[in-house]
Amino acid sequence: MLLTEPLNSGQSRTGWRLPARWGFLALLLGAELLGLSLRFDTASLSGDDSWWTRFAGNLPQVLRIGLAFIGALFLLLAPRGSGIVDAARQSAESHGWLRRLALHLLVFGAFSWATLALFGSAEHGHRLPGLAVGGWFSLGMLSCLLWLSAAAPARFWFRLASDERWPLAVAALAGFLAWVFGLAAELFWKPLAEGTFWLSYQLLRPLYPDALYDLSGYSLGTPGFMVNIAPQCSGYEGIGLVLVFLALYLWLFRAEIRFPQAFLLFPVGALAIWLANALRITLLIALGSSFSKEVALGGFHSQAGWIAFIAIALGLIFAMRRLHLFTKEDAVAPPAPPSSVPALLVPLLVLMAAIMLTSALSAGFDRYYPLRVVAAAGALWHFRSVYLHWQWRPSWQALAIGGAVFALWMLLEPGADSANSVLGTALASLPPGQKALWLAFRVLGSVLAVPLIEELAFRGYLLRHLAGRADDDLSPGRFAWLPFLVSSIAFGLLHRRWFAGTLAGMAYALAYYRRGRIADAVAAHVATNGLIALYVLAFGAWSLWS
Question: Chain centroid to CA 264: how far?
């Protein structure tokens, strides 16, 4: 049973309380993990060479293994997610979770105290007693078990472990492989860096005959611009991303893919991203030597890697679909999505691609912002025939919601009057004509293009998709907590001010639910951004546009 379905009399009492309870427990767990990770640094442990000391000193790796396990488990259980949630809700309806939560908090407090006492002394070179480490580990495990028991009764977790033993085993294997790949990255990054160094130098020499290199320090460049090839620049991170992406894709579409031929994509993808990384370093040096050091070390350095990864990932998918070597000839092609789906999503993808490209060519101040607006407008114009069939008359209440979001945004904005921001300084250095043109495009983008594109994607697609709405029905349906929260949080994470962005996303979703028209969400978003633009232009609070 989905969360959006009507509840019977026994379930009505918990229709909204259970999602709220689980959300609270998830936030509590995240806060506890964040607090421990910020407060204690086990990597600096010193003392005896016992196995428990080495284990405690490698706890960050254990955390990464755990995250890999959880991520793989969620992926494997996703096809049966609604059934698992339904079972958890039925078992937790009359569950006495407050007592278990109190016990969890008590044990977690004892675990935190033990962590402070144990690691505080170890950091000063004292010996870690094995019995104390065992007690500390037992407290941590008990705290985790009590947290699970607060979320759902033990019988649910035992039944889940019994029914999903194979996904649990595969997820455990994924955690083990994450540990193995981490060791491999530490062992082989130097040979990989040497190969990247050599190839980048060979690509650089035809462009700059006076190119310089220092193999001992992994320094490469020209007399005017040198860079160091750090471990993360050797290419193993990109290789890991491509391998994980391919593994997920092959698993999700395994019914259409020909094995074992498809496994050839792993070495092909790894080689492609490694070559792209060497080319990225070459272009970085060329950009810093002949154009701008600030752009090379700023936008290009931070965005070029992601651009290369996305291009190679999409290229591999395209090649897989086109070459029958990797796909089954008799595989049934999936039906083409309705026209409303690309009309809702493609403009956001185009905008994000334009943001990455313009940011890669900028250093702090994005002087190519008008290209974003042109690209976004082109995508919207392409789907104009779809949009014309929708109702676009907003309500005055939607505009009022947008005004309330503006007031909330300003209340949560720290130092909105910072006239010495990077944007303000850059605009002050532009000629009056260029400044006016840039500001005109900035207003058009933030007030018209961005609200429309973001609402189409987050409310028009994501919220409805989570609610199980038909693609040809643009209404959100009945209010449901899961689509409401997930779409709002995803919207907030897209913004630098993620908390204010999440609250804004909730307000726009409520505007959408009120009449079931996407026009109200767009109007509320337009009102918020329009008021922000007026405030920025009137008071020079350029940090609001940073």
Answer: 28
How many Cβ atoms are within 10 Å of 536's Cβ, its own excluded?
Answer: 21
Encoded tokens for 109: 């407090």
Q: Is residue 275 within 8 Å of residue 235, measured between CB atoms?
A: no
Q: How far apart are CA 24 and CA 4, in angstroms?
A: 20
Q: At what angle do helices 130-151 and 17-39 cross, to 10 degrees?
A: 160
Parent domain of 529: 386-545
The pLDDT value given to residue 276: 86
**8 A C-beta contact, residue 412 and residue 497:** yes
Same domain? For 153 and 175 the reply is no
Enumerate residues 6+ apart whose C-beta is below 8 A from 294. 363, 364
Q: Token pair of 320, please?
A: 């897989």
What six digits make up the tokens of 223? 């007399």
Distance CA 79, CA 70 (A): 15
Torsion of CA 83, 85, 90, 91, to 10 degrees: 110
Tokens of 214: 């220092």
C-beta neighbour count of 94 within 10 angstroms: 10
Residues 394 and 540 reside in one and the same domain = yes
Query: Model confidence over 416-455: pLDDT tens digits?
Result: 444 456 777 777 788 888 888 989 999 999 999 999 999 9
pLDDT in tens, 158-186: 888 888 888 888 778 777 776 666 666 66
Q: Which of 274, 298, 322 is the last residue of a domain?
A: 322
CA distance 343 to 380: 8
Instruction: Clarify whether residues 390 and 535 are in a common domain.
Output: yes
